[in-house]
Specification:
The protein has about 260 residues and is α/β, with parallel strands linked by helices. The protein folds into 2 domains: about 210 residues, Spore Coat Polysaccharide Biosynthesis Protein SpsA, Chain A, CATH 3.90.550; about 45 residues. A 7-stranded mixed beta sheet has the order 3-2-1-4-9-6-10, sandwiched between helices. Strands 5-11-7-8 form a 4-stranded mixed beta sheet.
Amino acid sequence: MSKISVLIPTYKPGWYLQRCLQSIEDQTLPKDNFKIYIALNGPKDNFEEVIHSALDNTNFDYEFFYLEQAGVSNARNFLIDSSTEPYITFIDDDDCISPIYLESLLSVSSPNTIGISNVYNFENDINERKPSYLGQSFLKLRDVEESKFKSRKYYSSPWAKLIHRNIIGATRFNTKLAVGEDALFMAELSYKAKAVKKALPEAIYYVYERPNSASRTKVKPLDELQRITYLTLQYTKLFFHPRYNKLFILTRIAATLKFLNRIF
């Protein structure tokens, strides 16, 4: 039985999707230990053909889905519910992973421990990569259990991790958010994780700095203010819940309020 569900939401995919899938094809982990779940969300156009053309060059097991409703959170939630393997890892369609990524993450993960990898950003070529903020932090982390406060930066995104399905449980991405949903998702499941543990240095998640990606899209000041207000309210609810580390949630609130600088 496969051990890892690799979840890939994709919206209007381009050439980079083939690079992503090829990096999964090149994994050192035997292919019977993982399965790919890919969901095209939004317009079909010829994007379904793009996906199947890229999949034709692979030998791993996969399932393809089409969702008419656009939205990465909606697609990720659907894939969580549609997959069955005990471990889950999220990969964006324009990113890619190093060959040892899945194997190394699996070796350090458990039902109550989240395995994490190094993170590098790149614009054109992986060989021109640079450490991201998280990547630089990962390099300082040794294989020890950390408190939620000390490991707060590792809960800011769902990718570059291997998470057991027991930790995720009923937690799902908030479909009302287009930005900030990642950190909220990780914060909501944080109380179930007893530790984060670093994989081998060669286990790398490569983030493609695509100019027109969703994370780089400009937003209107009023929309941004509404988003910050809503997100702060969600974190405040977690702060007053006895299950969550209050200091950790305060760091998330502070990080959210920093976005006010984009308005004023």
